[in-house]
Amino acid sequence: DRWQGLVCHDANNREPSGRLRLSVPQPDPGPDIAMLKRFMADLPNPGTLEQLKREAQGILSPDVFDGARFEFNKTLSPKFALNHNVFLGSAQMPASYEFGANFGDERVLIASRVDMGGRLNGRINAQFGESFAARLQAQASPESPGQMQSLKADLDYKGSTCCAGATYMGGGLLGANLMQSITPWLAVGGEGFYHTQKEVKGGAVAARAQWGHKGEHVATAKAGSFGNVELSYQRKVSDKVGLATEMQYYHNQFCNFGVGYEFRLRQATFKGLIQSDTTCSASLEERDASGTLPAPFRRPSLFSPAGADQPKH
C-alpha cells in the first residue's frame, strides 16, 4: 500500500534482474500554464528600443537643408547598385558630390559612400538565421589616416515577443537594451550604458502603446537617469495622411515641443514641422518613375526644402 500509485505490480514493469521499476507520475501543467502559453504566442514583436518612436520620427524629421540636392540611383544587377548625390550648395555651404556603392542580398548588405574630401562612410548589416543580426558602421577621413574616425557595432536579437541588443562604440562605450511585449498593445523596456574610459554609467526606461482598429495610434514614453524625458504620439489619419507630436525635456537644460504632418501623394511626399522654438520647416520630395529620363538617371529624387526661423522675443 505504501507504494501504491508509484509501483505497478505486474510482470511488464519488472527489470531483467526481477526488481520492480518505479513509475513516478508527471505533474500536470494545468490550464493556467497552457493559457499563458497561448497568451504569449499572441503577443507581437515590439521592435528595438532604438526604433521606439519610429512612426512619429518619420513624420517629425523632414529632410531640410539649405540649397538644392539631386540623387541618382543606378541598379547594375539584383545585388549591386550605384548612387550619385549632387549638392548644389548655398551661401553657407559649398557644393559637393558623393559617390556610393551598395551590395546586398537576403543575408548581407554592404553600403559605402565617399565625398570629394576623401571622407568614407561604410556600414555592413548581416543576418544570422531568423533571430540574430549584426551591424557595423565606420567612418574614416584623411584628417585621421590609419584610424577610424568613428566606429559602432551592434548585435541584435529578435524573438517572437521581445527584442534585445548590445552596442559598442569607439572610445569605450558599452550598452545593452531590451523591449518586451506584455500585452497585445503595450510593450516596456529599458537600456543601460557604461563608458569604460570616463567611468560614466546611466540608463533609461521606456514604454510603447499601439491601439486602434489598424494600429493607427502609437504613443511612446522614455525617461533617462540624467533627467531627460521624451514623449511622442503619432496618428495615422489615413493611408496618405499622418500626424505626430513630440516633447523633449532635459532637466535644467531645455524643453522642446513639436507638431508635424505628412501627406503622401502618388509620386510625392510632403512633410512639415512646427516647433516651440519658433522654427518652421517643410520638405517636398518628388520621385520620377516614368522612365522618361536617360537610363543611368532613372528614379531620381528632387528635394524642395523650406525653413523659417523667427527670432525669439
Give your account of this protein's structure.
- The protein has helices spanning about 30-40, 55-60; strands spanning about 70-75, 80-85, 95-105, 110-115, 120-130, 130-140, 150-160, 160-170, 175-185, 185-195, 200-210, 215-225, 230-235, 240-250, 255-265, 270-275, 280-285, 300-310.
- It has about 325 residues and is mainly beta.
- It has one domain (about 45-310): Porin, CATH 2.40.160.10.
- It has an 18-stranded antiparallel beta barrel.
- β2 and β3 (about 95-105) form a beta hairpin.
- The longest helix is centred in the N-terminal third of the chain and has 12 residues, at about 30-40.
- The chain is globular and about 70 Å long.
- The termini are far apart.
Outline the fold blueprint.
Layout: H1 30-41, H2 54-60, E1 69-77, E2 80-87, E3 96-104, E4 108-115, E5 120-128, E6 132-140, E7 150-158, E8 162-169, E9 173-183, E10 186-195, E11 200-211, E12 217-224, E13 228-236, E14 241-250, E15 254-264, E16 268-275, E17 279-287, E18 301-309
Antiparallel strand pairs: 1-2, 1-18, 2-3, 3-4, 4-5, 5-6, 6-7, 7-8, 8-9, 9-10, 10-11, 11-12, 12-13, 13-14, 14-15, 15-16, 16-17, 17-18
